[in-house]
Write a structure and sequence with these properties.
The chain has two helices and four strands, in the order βββααβ. It is α+β, with helices and mostly antiparallel strands and 91 residues long. Strands 1-2-3-4 form a four-stranded antiparallel sheet, with helices on one face. The radius of gyration is 16 Å and the shape is globular. It starts with a strand and ends in a 27-residue tail after the last strand. The protein has helices at 41-44, 46-59, and strands spanning 2-6, 10-15, 18-21, 62-64.
Length: 91
């Protein structure tokens, strides 16, 4: 299962070079206020959301992947890891 975020915060399932919109699955998560959780609620509940994602994808019109703007895969990452190696001294 390949899941993507695209365009204006939509969620899609990538299949055969196309994206199928499964954004309505987000309704299962409810609303979150400040402070936001320190994890991605979608990823945390992915196992329970898979059946609904599959159901929505079966009925969704495929959009060629080159017609969507892909976004960062995780909406609210718990941490960001970077390796500052611009110079040999940084290693």
């Amino acid at each position: 299962m390949k899941i993507c975020r695209y365009d204006e915060g939509r969620v899609g399932l990538v299949q055969d070079g196309a994206v199928r919109d499964v954004t309505p699955v987000l309704e299962e998560l409810g609303r979150f206020g400040y402070p936001l959780p320190e994890y991605d609620p979608f990823i945390a509940r992915l196992d329970t959301l898979k059946p609904k994602i599959d159901s929505l994808a079966r009925n969704a019109k495929p959009i060629p992947i080159d017609r969507v703007k892909l976004l960062a895969p995780v909406a609210n990452p718990g941490k960001i890891i970077a390796a500052p190696v611009n110079y040999a001294k940084h290693l």
